[in-house]
């Protein structure tokens, strides 16, 4: 349907919601994406010096489903239980623009040419914004893997990057979907169950309460921010409509309103502000909502291990009491303890780095957003100043004319 | 009507009678064809003709085209039949009843100026045969008449007497010539028609050439009809020359300084006169509200008159007067400030109403004091509108419509406690009422209306009752519906005037555009309010997030962000109310006003319809007469003839009315356009300034936040 090259936008500040240590040994980006109906094909481009890859540079086409597959396989890998697994990118959502496109097609007859052109332009801009956002989240997802010392060595990840054929992952069928749903149910039930288990490490206890609190707050904030940007967009839309109406009014009117046209110059900007705000702030919050979910998952896995550990301890005690299967129980208990310890250790590391990463990302995005806001406000100020000047001038001219000069 | 040759006494009379008559037109005509090829005797007749107004220009001339000889006797007939009755019946009762002393005391000053002008200018124009002795010739006449008046109250009576005298003149002069003139006219008829054409050109052509079409032809027609139909005006105007010659010749310069404040204008003399004149009439109006109305009519023509002499000196008369008029229009700001404040709830329950304080600040002498305040309720405003529209709308005046009655909003106020929506409603209404009143008083004619003055000044106003059922939108809607129905029933008016055709179309288009725009601005306001609300919620939630953040710097930044968002919310709110009050309300006002403009057009159409109906009737009567003639029934023939004369008179009257209403509507629409441009300009600037301000605030807020964000470690 539409193919948009991201090359031109590369220079633009990328809204990277995570701080990535850019070491040159493995650089991944998505320079191009192709949208076909409801499927989006991303071109994943990799540049590497690692010996585990066959070539130093290659690119493969990947679909959204393959990203999900990568995420799922990594989640299911036992040894990564102690790591915060990067959240999977959300499904590309082109519903909004598509719906609008539909409306546009319907209303084509009832609109004037200019209005139609304008609407189309708007729509394209919106579509582009959504598209860019989608590409970005996928890119960031991969970059999180590439920057992580353990994940970058993952076999599945490397296959994902290198294998230039279709990975032939299917969409989840109904059963699997149901299974996933069931698993979630079990997980939440389990979460409730093991919440009774006494925490041994204070760090994790703290972290847990913080994360729980934080995630609810950030979720709230995200929702509110989304609402805000939506209404901001509405305002921008209104401005656009007004400017259209003003234009047509001015076209019909030869004298009085000419200068008012200039008002509409302001409007386009409002649109930009809204989308920038969306990109910076809302995306940040949204990303962290997901990231915190990932951290919570880690905590869950750790708690699960803790519970297992306790259980194995109990089993050992029981076996000792009964005097049979002691060796097996001991083995089991030792394993659990080991696993738990390992999990705790890596979890601690991960959480600390997560925290640092979060702060840095917030900082970066807040600064960027503020700068953008200032920039837009300044541009708008300039515009309104110019318009103001223009109107005043036109009044002056009008007065002069009426005086007969 | 060809004024090529100034027959002295009549010329003077002519000036006297219609100080206001669009002299420029005549002058222009005369300057174009200066040498008078006709014998003197022709002039009076023609002059009377022109005096008698529009029929010379359009109506009769059309019929004359068909059959010059029989009709040529008609105009004089008109003169003898109609105006005298008018003059003798109306003004007498009217003028005698009023205290004229004051009038006389005040009037001379402005009029003297004018008179001087009127007389001096033509004199300068010595290309005409006119010379000073001739001009002075009538003066003794004028002076004598009052003296001759047997009554002791010289001041009170003269007007009437002069009227009588004038009528005698009319009786004496024209008849003498009419016998001649009928023959002369025949001889000159070809020339006459040529004149007609020329004059028509003057009326029709300048509009096309000059950007501002209507003005050249606007006032003249108005003036003519004014003078004709309200002969009562004459006495008052007539006073001027007499007084001038009697005593004011020396003191003439005296009044000028008083109006000196307006000397910044390009040609101060004339515009000053305007002021003076209007002030004079304002003085007058204090005495009798009834007369006031007429005076006001007289004011307008007189305003255009001063311009005329100047214009007449050049051949570019129309364009020059144009400028004058434009200037006049841009200058017609009255020193009158009206503000509405302190909305106050009076009473309880469903009988409660809001009373508003209407404060006026003025230096106009028509008011008793410089500042005064009254309390008015909403229905009083509606009552004012109804009174005004009753009186003026059939004349084609554009009556500013009041804000709509809102049962819902008012009920809320009545029942409601102090909730923000009802407070907003009250504020909105207050502002709308203020704008409404300001529009009313900025209309030069409406300001003169006694009801307006009463509304502003009088302590207690009789309760307007009928407004309950029909008010605001309901009333307008009904009016529109009725007129729409009428206009639909009638045959589509074939518009001869391109200007009106275009304007009607324009107004309709504009209304549509504005409606659309208004809907959008309303939605903008709503969305902005929503945005402001959402921003507030977001700010709260960010604050919460900040409180649970464990990194202190980030936490601080977040709470700062929350603060910033809070302020932005305020900003959005302010902007929303700005959107509403400067933009949305402006549009709403103009949608209503455009409705009123359409009402004016409808009035004009109605007048046209009346005229056409009369024309048809006349046609029928003529046919009947022809039949009778054919059937040779002399007994009924006389009756038929009488009827024809009657209907001819009616046709002329209706036509005049139509012309007058056309002119008024034209003027009103032009005024409206100007006001609109000015209003929009002002509001757009205000709006832009508010936008600018909010942007500046935004920059400030974010600028302050930037170091905070950077401080996160």
From TrEMBL, chain A:
<dbReference type="InterPro" id="IPR027267">
    <property type="entry name" value="AH/BAR_dom_sf"/>
</dbReference>
<dbReference type="InterPro" id="IPR014637">
    <property type="entry name" value="SNX5/SNX6/SNX32"/>
</dbReference>
<dbReference type="GO" id="GO:0042147">
    <property type="term" value="P:retrograde transport, endosome to Golgi"/>
</dbReference>
<dbReference type="GO" id="GO:0034452">
    <property type="term" value="F:dynactin binding"/>
</dbReference>
<dbReference type="GO" id="GO:0035091">
    <property type="term" value="F:phosphatidylinositol binding"/>
</dbReference>
<dbReference type="GO" id="GO:0006907">
    <property type="term" value="P:pinocytosis"/>
</dbReference>
<keyword id="KW-0813">Transport</keyword>
<dbReference type="GO" id="GO:0015031">
    <property type="term" value="P:protein transport"/>
</dbReference>
<feature type="domain" description="PX">
    <location>
        <begin position="1"/>
        <end position="167"/>
    </location>
</feature>
<dbReference type="Pfam" id="PF09325">
    <property type="entry name" value="Vps5"/>
</dbReference>
<dbReference type="Pfam" id="PF00787">
    <property type="entry name" value="PX"/>
</dbReference>
<dbReference type="InterPro" id="IPR015404">
    <property type="entry name" value="Vps5_C"/>
</dbReference>
<keyword id="KW-0653">Protein transport</keyword>
<dbReference type="GO" id="GO:0005829">
    <property type="term" value="C:cytosol"/>
</dbReference>
<protein>
    <recommendedName>
        <fullName>Sorting nexin</fullName>
    </recommendedName>
</protein>
<dbReference type="InterPro" id="IPR036871">
    <property type="entry name" value="PX_dom_sf"/>
</dbReference>
<comment type="function">
    <text>Involved in several stages of intracellular trafficking.</text>
</comment>
<comment type="similarity">
    <text>Belongs to the sorting nexin family.</text>
</comment>
<dbReference type="GO" id="GO:0005768">
    <property type="term" value="C:endosome"/>
</dbReference>
<dbReference type="InterPro" id="IPR001683">
    <property type="entry name" value="PX_dom"/>
</dbReference>
UniProtKB/TrEMBL annotation, chain B:
<feature type="compositionally biased region" description="Low complexity">
    <location>
        <begin position="300"/>
        <end position="320"/>
    </location>
</feature>
<dbReference type="InterPro" id="IPR036871">
    <property type="entry name" value="PX_dom_sf"/>
</dbReference>
<dbReference type="Pfam" id="PF00787">
    <property type="entry name" value="PX"/>
</dbReference>
<feature type="compositionally biased region" description="Polar residues">
    <location>
        <begin position="58"/>
        <end position="72"/>
    </location>
</feature>
<feature type="compositionally biased region" description="Acidic residues">
    <location>
        <begin position="193"/>
        <end position="202"/>
    </location>
</feature>
<dbReference type="GO" id="GO:0034498">
    <property type="term" value="P:early endosome to Golgi transport"/>
</dbReference>
<keyword id="KW-0175">Coiled coil</keyword>
<comment type="similarity">
    <text>Belongs to the sorting nexin family.</text>
</comment>
<feature type="compositionally biased region" description="Basic and acidic residues">
    <location>
        <begin position="225"/>
        <end position="241"/>
    </location>
</feature>
<feature type="coiled-coil region">
    <location>
        <begin position="637"/>
        <end position="664"/>
    </location>
</feature>
<keyword id="KW-0472">Membrane</keyword>
<keyword id="KW-0597">Phosphoprotein</keyword>
<protein>
    <recommendedName>
        <fullName>Sorting nexin-1</fullName>
    </recommendedName>
</protein>
<dbReference type="GO" id="GO:0005829">
    <property type="term" value="C:cytosol"/>
</dbReference>
<feature type="compositionally biased region" description="Acidic residues">
    <location>
        <begin position="40"/>
        <end position="54"/>
    </location>
</feature>
<keyword id="KW-0333">Golgi apparatus</keyword>
<dbReference type="Pfam" id="PF09325">
    <property type="entry name" value="Vps5"/>
</dbReference>
<dbReference type="InterPro" id="IPR027267">
    <property type="entry name" value="AH/BAR_dom_sf"/>
</dbReference>
<keyword id="KW-0653">Protein transport</keyword>
<dbReference type="GO" id="GO:0035091">
    <property type="term" value="F:phosphatidylinositol binding"/>
</dbReference>
<keyword id="KW-0967">Endosome</keyword>
<dbReference type="GO" id="GO:0031901">
    <property type="term" value="C:early endosome membrane"/>
</dbReference>
């Amino acid at each position: 349907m539409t193919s948009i090259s991201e090359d031109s936008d590369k220079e633009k500040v990328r809204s990277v919601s995570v701080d990535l240590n850019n070491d040159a040994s493995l650089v991944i980006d998505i320079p191009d994406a192709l949208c076909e109906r409801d499927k989006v094909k991303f071109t994943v481009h990799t540049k590497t010096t690692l010996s585990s890859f066959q070539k130093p540079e290659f690119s493969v086409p990947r679909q959204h489903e393959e990203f999900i597959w990568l995420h799922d396989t990594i989640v299911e890998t036992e040894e990564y239980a102690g790591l915060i697994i990067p959240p999977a990118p959300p499904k590309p959502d082109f519903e909004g623009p598509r719906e609008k496109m539909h409306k546009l097609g319907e209303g084509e007859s009832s609109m004037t040419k200019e209005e139609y052109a304008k609407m189309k332009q708007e729509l394209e801009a919106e579509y582009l914004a959504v598209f860019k956002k989608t590409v970005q989240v996928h890119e960031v997802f991969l970059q999180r893997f590439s920057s992580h010392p353990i994940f970058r060595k993952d076999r599945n990840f490397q296959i994902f990057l290198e294998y230039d054929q279709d990975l032939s992952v299917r969409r989840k069928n109904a059963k699997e979907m149901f299974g996933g749903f069931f698993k979630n149910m079990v997980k939440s039930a389990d979460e409730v169950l093991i919440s009774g288990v006494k925490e041994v490490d204070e760090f994790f206890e703290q972290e847990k309460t913080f994360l729980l609190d934080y995630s609810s707050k950030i979720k709230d904030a995200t929702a509110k921010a989304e609402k805000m940007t939506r209404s901001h967009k509405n305002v921008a839309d209104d401005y656009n409509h007004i400017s259209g109406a003003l234009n047509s009014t001015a076209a019909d009117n030869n004298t009085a309103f000419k200068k008012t046209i200039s008002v509409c110059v302001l409007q386009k900007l409002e649109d930009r502000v809204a989308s920038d705000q969306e990109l910076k702030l809302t995306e940040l919050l949204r990303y962290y909502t997901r990231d915190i979910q990932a951290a919570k998952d880690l905590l869950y896995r750790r708690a699960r291990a803790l519970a297992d550990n306790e259980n194995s301890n109990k089993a050992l005690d029981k076996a000792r009491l009964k005097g049979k299967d002691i060796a097996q129980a001991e083995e089991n208990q030792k394993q659990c303890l080991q696993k738990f310890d390992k999990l705790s250790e890596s979890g601690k590391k991960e959480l600390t780095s997560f925290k640092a990463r979060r702060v840095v990302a917030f900082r970066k995005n807040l600064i960027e957003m503020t700068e953008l806001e200032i920039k837009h406000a300044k541009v708008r100020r300039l515009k309104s100043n110019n318009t103001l000047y223009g109107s005043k001038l036109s009044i002056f001219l009008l007065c002069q004319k009426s005086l007969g000069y | 009507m060809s004024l090529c040759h100034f027959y002295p006494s009549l010329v003077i009379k002519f000036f006297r009678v219609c100080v206001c008559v669009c002299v420029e037109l005549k002058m222009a005509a005369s300057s174009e064809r200066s040498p008078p090829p006709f014998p003197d005797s022709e002039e009076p007749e023609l002059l009377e003709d022109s005096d008698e107004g529009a029929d010379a220009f359009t109506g009769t001339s059309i019929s004359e085209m068909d059959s010059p000889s029989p009709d040529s006797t008609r105009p004089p007939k008109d003169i003898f039949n109609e105006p005298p009755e008018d003059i003798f019946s109306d003004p007498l009762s009217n003028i005698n009843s009023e205290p004229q002393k004051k009038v006389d005391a005040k009037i001379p000053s402005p009029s003297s100026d004018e008179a001087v002008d009127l007389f001096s200018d033509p004199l300068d124009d010595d290309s005409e045969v006119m010379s000073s002795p001739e001009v002075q010739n009538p003066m003794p006449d004028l002076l004598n008449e009052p003296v001759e008046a047997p009554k002791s109250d010289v001041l009170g009576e003269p007007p009437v007497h002069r009227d009588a005298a004038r009528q005698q003149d009319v009786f004496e002069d024209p008849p003498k010539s009419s016998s001649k003139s009928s023959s002369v006219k025949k001889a000159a008829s070809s020339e006459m028609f040529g004149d007609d054409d020329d004059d028509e050109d003057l009326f029709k052509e300048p509009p096309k050439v000059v950007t501002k079409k209507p003005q050249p032809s606007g006032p003249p027609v108005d003036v003519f009809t004014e003078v004709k139909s309200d002969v009562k005006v004459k006495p008052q105007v007539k006073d001027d020359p007499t007084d001038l010659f009697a005593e004011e010749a020396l003191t003439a310069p005296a009044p000028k300084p008083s109006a000196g404040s307006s000397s910044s204008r390009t040609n101060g003399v004339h515009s000053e006169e305007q002021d003076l004149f209007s002030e004079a009439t304002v003085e007058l109006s204090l005495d009798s509200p009834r007369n006031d109305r007429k005076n006001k009519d007289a004011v307008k023509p007189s305003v255009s008159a001063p311009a005329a002499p100047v214009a007449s000196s050049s051949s570019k008369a129309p364009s020059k007067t144009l400028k004058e008029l434009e200037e006049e229009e841009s200058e017609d700001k009255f020193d009158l400030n009206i503000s509405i404040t302190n909305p106050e709830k009076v009473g309880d329950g469903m009988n409660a109403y809001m009373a508003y304080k209407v404060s006026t600040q003025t230096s106009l002498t028509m008011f008793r004091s410089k500042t005064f305040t009254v309390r008015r309720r909403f229905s009083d405003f509606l009552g004012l509108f109804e009174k005004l529209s009753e009186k003026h709308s059939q004349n084609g005046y554009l009556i500013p419509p009041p804000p709509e009655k809102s049962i819902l909003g008012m009920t809320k106020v009545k029942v409601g406690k102090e909730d923000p929506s009802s407070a907003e409603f009250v504020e909105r209404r207050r502002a709308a009422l203020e704008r409404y009143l300001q529009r009313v008083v900025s209309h030069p004619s409406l300001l003169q209306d006694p009801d307006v003055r009463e509304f502003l000044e009088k302590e207690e106003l009789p309760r307007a009752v009928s407004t309950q059922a029909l008010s605001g939108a309901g009333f307008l809607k009904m009016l529109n519906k009725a007129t729409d129905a009428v206009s639909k029933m009638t045959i589509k008016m074939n518009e001869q005037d391109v200007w009106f055709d275009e304007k009607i179309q324009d107004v309709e288009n504009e209304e549509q555009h504005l409606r659309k725009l208004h809907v959008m601005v309303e939605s903008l306001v709503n969305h902005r309010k929503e945005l402001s609300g959402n921003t507030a919620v977001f700010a709260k939630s960010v604050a919460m997030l900040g409180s649970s953040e464990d990194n202190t710097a980030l936490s601080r930044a977040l709470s700062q962000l929350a603060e910033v968002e809070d302020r932005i919310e305020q900003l959005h709110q302010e902007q929303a109310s700005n959107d509403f009050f400067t933009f949305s309300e402006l549009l709403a006002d103009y949608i209503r006003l455009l409705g009123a403009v359409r009402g004016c057009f409808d009035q004009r159409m109605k007048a046209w319809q009346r005229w056409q109906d009369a024309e048809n009737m006349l046609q029928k009567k003529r046919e009947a007469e022809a039949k009778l003639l054919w059937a040779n029934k002399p007994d009924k023939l006389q009756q038929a003839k009488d009827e024809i004369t009657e209907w001819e008179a009616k046709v002329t009257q209706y036509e005049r009315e139509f012309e007058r209403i056309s002119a008024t509507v034209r003027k009103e629409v032009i005024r409206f356009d100007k006001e609109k441009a000015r209003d929009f300009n002002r509001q757009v600037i205000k709006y832009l300034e508010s936008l600018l301000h909010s942007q500046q605030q935004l920059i400030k807020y974010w600028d302050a936040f930037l170091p905070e964000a950077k401080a996160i470690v």
